[in-house]
Amino acid sequence: MPRGRYALHDPHDHTPLADEHFQCAPGPSGWRYVSRLTTPSGDHLGSVDLALDELGRPIRLELHAASWQVRGAAIDGVTWVRTDPTGAHATEGNVRAHAFTGSSPAFLVATARLLRLTPSSTATRVRLVALTDPVLAPRTLDQSWALVKRETHATDSGPLTVDAYQVTALDTGEQHTVHLAGDVVLAAPGIELEELASPPSALA
Q1: Of 45, 86, 202, 203, most Cβ neighbours within 10 A?
Q2: What stretch of H or E contains 115?
Q3: In 10 A of CB 157, how many CB atoms?
Q4: Torsion sign over Cα 198, 199, 200, 202
């Protein structure tokens, strides 16, 4: 069961935004990721709880940030309920999309698990609902994912396979690279793996 800490920063000016203390594990129904977020000074900032089924679809998502809360799942596309800080008003949403995304590294692992790309496969288009900080506002976007390189490295705990994905935002054409080792993000824009207490689990 990998557990550790990601440092999240602004990908443009590298301003520190948060530390994400996480643990994740495959299970009988798929994969689960839980984390709590703190500010750089250590104050509570939010949390993530994401569970995927065996096909990589989100069967339960619960996000908390700045007193906002979103609960969602893959139902008729993706469906969610977003609750405001006072709890007086809840808004529902539904989009014909494949999954959710957001600032947490969990969503990169989830998208890779959903697409199950191989180095020989062509780029795959995916529609996602992004829950954007700081108030978890939903926004639908389209991306293209391609697995451009797979390398195996020798480590003290055995071979470690690292996948490099090229991710393209289809509305702007902006591209970036995401490096994954199993269910752990090694590097991505705005994300640095600072601590890891046990080896990653392989993506089924």
Answers
A1: 45
A2: helix 106-115
A3: 9
A4: negative
- Sequence-ordered strand ranges (E) for 39-174: 44-52, 58-65, 68-73, 78-83, 90-95, 99-101, 124-132, 137-155, 158-169
Is residue 203 scored above 80 in pLDDT?
A: no
Residue whose pair of structure tokens reads 């065996």 in the numeric block: 54
Picking from 96, 91, 105, 79, the residue whose alpha carbon sits closest to that of residue 8 is 105
Whether cis (ω within 30° of 0) applies to the bond prior to 189 is no
DSSP 96: S
**DSSP state, residue 34:** E
Quickly state the pLDDT bin for 153 (edges 50, 70, 90): confident
Q: What is the distance between the alpha carbons of residues 197 and 109, in angstroms, rounded to a whole number?
A: 18
Q: What is the CA radius of gyration of the chain?
A: 16
**Beta-bridge mates of residue 160:** 153
pLDDT single digits (tens) 154-197: 888 788 899 999 999 999 999 999 999 999 999 999 999 999 99
